[in-house]
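Example record used in the benchmark description.
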Amino acid sequence: MRLTIAFDDIGTPTPRMRRPDIRGKVIEAVLTRAAAAGVDDVALVSANGLNRRMTAEELEYIVGERVFRSFYADGLLTNHDAEDADNLVSIGSTTAGEVALNARVANSDLLIFVHLADNSRRRGAAEIAAGLGSTATIGQLCGLQGQGSDAAAAEIADLVSAAVPVFEIDAVLDNDVLAPPLEFLSGREWEWTLKDRATWFAVRRGLEWTPPRARRRLMNRTEADYHATLVTAGAPAAVHKASSAQVTAQQLVEVPAPADVGLLGISAQTPYSVDSVINPVLAAWSALAASFGSHSGTPFVRPGGALIVYHPLQAEFSPLHHPSYVDFFADVLTVTTDAQQISTDYEEKFARDSWYVHLYRTSQAFHGVHPMHLWYQIAAAQQHCNDIVWVGADRESAARMGFRAASTLADALEIVASTVGNAPSISYLHSPPQILVDVR
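Model output (structure tokens):
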């Protein structure tokens, strides 16, 4: 038989898992069973979608040294390329257009999809197309029309399931984001011991005195002691249901009522800044989509309320990883921040730009349209909150993205007072680890 094994890219989980990566252990178990059954036509593909290509070292980190040595040199361990027309196969069409998958995947007798589940925001078999589809296919899921709609995902999931038999293996991760000696940061401050407080003081002072580049390098090397709390295998829809239930049970935090003001910070890493920098667009996505958008249906801030975020929003960009983000920030956001106008006037231009496509296919650059897909996810929070204020942020960067900046929390509260009054209710969203807000 023709067997293909696909797996998440380096952005899942964040921060990365301390070796050995569970995906590598699962893949080795699958390969052992395949060899025992006499299957010798096997290939491995990273389901990176429009994310950057992983380096050889990053691939080895995930799959392990033995699997890497056995497959990489022969071209049987690869990154998916959403722009490689010669290696994409149409599997049908939806109301929005054609759906195409990685040719190796589409022509397989069996696809085994190995996934680490660390959040409940997934769409079954459609996730396979998001990681292994063409640019246009991914656009149906991640473009503006795909935001908040399950219809496109359902159509694509049906096409994927009909095109290739899929056996999904999910490992649900726990919330052990911080390894010793910093594990106390995941707990409540009033439960810290004297030793914990001394460690926090030393770490905080040390980071303040560390040069920004060295501090960023230190943060990017952070690894977490994740463990699997559940492993489920089978049909994607059933596996997704089981994994989501487990993740929800682990991460659900009940909030009595929506607050007038929400307060949150941003993690030192995002799935799209591994070994890189957090530029203002990624910071906005991390706060407004990943954190604020992590809820069971109702945000923890009331409609028309205010959101206060801590981040410097320095206009730093990685020319290696985020070339299209530079132009999006400089040329698009200076004209408009409206998601609909961006989709109409700029998305096709960025998607078809030959230089962005070249860098995506041959280097470690995110696809040209990637910043727009993230910006569309931000739109819900922008529409929900009347004011979004960034404390300690570069004022020009904040204004360019349609936000306001303040020097201190007191200043931020004064700015939003016209909307929420002088004595607002405030909810503070702790981070890390990941949580799912459930407003009662």
